[in-house]
Amino acid sequence: PQAKPLVIVTRKLPDPVETRMMELFDVRLNLDDHPFTREELCQAMAEADVLVPTLTDRLDSTVLSHAGPSLRLIANFGVGVDHIDVASAHQRGLTVTNTPDVLTEDTADMAMALILAVPRRLVEGERLAREGNWTGWTPTFMLGHRISGKRLGIVGMGRIGQAVARRARGFGMAIHYHNRRRLHAATESALEATYWESLDQMLARMDVVSVHCPHTPATFHLLSARRLALLRPHAYVVNTARGEVIDENALVRMLSQGELAGAGLDVFEHEPAINPRLLKMDNVVLLPHMGSATVEARVDMGEKVLINIKAFIDGHRPPDRVLPGA
Ligand code: 8YV
């Protein structure tokens, strides 16, 4: 029988996923779950038939140049591939896959949780109660802002953006969106969403803005200092996509100057570092990249990785191929 392909996994994955992988392939796991150094990554590139990286691995063209003769597939654990130079991988004949769909609902839930938590001061209130600082109810105590009837501007109306739109509709928000391409009329009307071709014009009119586009060269600092300045001072910003899509310094500056009402951030420009000024603000909710952090999503993401590897090895086209520039 043919030797099983060597699959190198860069991080600890959920147990059922690792068990299944070990049944199917010759697997090298990261038992202590340490982040791979650049050297370890290059070494893995040189030895593996299939590499399973995550967002903590920077697969730039230099690292990719270490690909050994047997490496054919990079099956990313995660939907975002901004840590992989996909064009350079393709030039080297490497196939790249990701894990869409299975984390859509959970990430949208987290965005919705932030859309609720920030205007309603949920975490601030919880902190106050927990710290024993509640001196009693008064009519003007801990007032936040209503979200029903308010305008939600979704930046990036793909799978996750649309799932957020469905949720926010249920909370009585008016849905607006900006996207590279306008949705099909039927989808747009099912979501009761209003399209803005101009991101600038949309931003100037929203009460809450939630980011759901991937990080690409075209979306780096899409919410630049200039665009953030278009937001009204009562607006909230939510980001469960990638920190790089927002100019974080500009955002922090505006929050500290009262030019924005608050922010809910699950992602940051220099993860795991968080701008220390954010840590001191009461009107922000900060999460450590937890959008898809459910047992269910992570097991399903692992299952997707397996399906992609299996299809590839069996000579089929893997279902979740990522093409350069996609
Ligand atoms: C994961 C994510 O935490 O899929 C993504 O793009 O950001 C998260 O779901 C991460 O990718 C795991 O590698």
Produce a short descriptive summary:
This protein is an alpha/beta fold and 326 residues long. It is built from 13 helices and twelve strands.
Please provide a written account of the structure:
With 326 residues, this protein is α/β, with parallel strands linked by helices. The protein has 2 domains: 6-102 and 294-313, NAD(P)-binding Rossmann-like Domain (Rossmann fold, 3-Layer(aba) Sandwich); 104-286, NAD(P)-binding Rossmann-like Domain (Rossmann fold). The chain is built from 13 helices and 12 strands. The chain has a 7-stranded parallel β-sheet. Strands 2-1-3-4-5 form a 5-stranded parallel β-sheet, with helices on both faces. α1 packs parallel to α13 (295-313) and α5 packs across α7 (159-170). The longest helix is centred in the C-terminal third of the chain and has 19 residues, at 295-313. It is globular and about 75 Å long. The two termini are 38 Å apart. 41% of the residues are buried. 2-keto-D-gluconic acid (8YV) binds at residues 54-55, 77-80, 103, 289, 291-292.
List keywords for this structure.
single chain; 326 residues; alpha/beta; Rossmann fold; 2 domains; 7-stranded parallel β-sheet; 5-stranded parallel β-sheet; 12 strands; 34% helix; binds 2-keto-D-gluconic acid; glyoxylate reductase (NADPH) activity; NAD; D-isomer_2-hydroxyacid_DH; D-isomer_2_OHA_DH_cat_dom; hydroxypyruvate reductase [NAD(P)H] activity
